[in-house]
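re: that chain from earlier
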Amino acid sequence: MKVIQKTNPQELGRKAGQAAADLIKSAIREKGEANIILATGTSQFETLNQLLSEDIDWAKVHLFHLDEYLGIPITHPASFRKYLKERFIDKVGKLASYHLIDGETDPNEECERLGKLTNDHPIDVAMVGIGENGHLAFNDPPADFDTEKPYLVVTLDEPCRMQQLNEGWFNSLEEVPQQAISMSIRQIMKSKHIICSVPDVRKAQAVKDCLENEVNPMNPASILQQHPDCEIYLDTHSASLLTASVQH
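^ sequence. v structure.
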């Protein structure tokens, strides 16, 4: 795990996006295609914008994403399918393929469908974030570190749901779904490279807990400490509670 601190969200996003682009282009050079995971949410705006500006042959890229609410239509402002369609897929033109999580169908069948697809497409680059409660994807504490299922149905805790409300995706806490489909911890950790973008002071405590404490399901993103090639991009605010020994 390598921690990289930048001054603001714009610089963080630029550097994280550049790093991800270099890894994607390297995978395409080596094997003719790349399999990637994109994160969503407000923390990923700048990183995705930078990635879109990079010279990448997107027709050789297969896209997956991390999570989606159960029962939310793609037209809902909070839909992560909508987010990716509008902010990324519609802008890059032709992709080799993209596989969005459908939270409106049978969730168990959807998890099986996605699991088979990820088995056929080992992930080269995963772009992730860390939630205010330390979650990785929608794996809230205590996260399941043991399941081998690539995708699973999860129950969202109140801090996670409050984050979604406070970011402006919903009008009330009651509107925030209580369940979602999420990529599992073990599946994320199978990615060859992980780029983790975490801006904003509201993430500072989670960053400290996940990077300075021992790996623990109560701090789900702490598992990133065990990944052999993970870069975590922070800004001044999200890194503000870290000790000097962790900051780079």
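The helical segments are 9-31, 45-53, 80-92, 107-120, 158-166, 185-189, 204-212.
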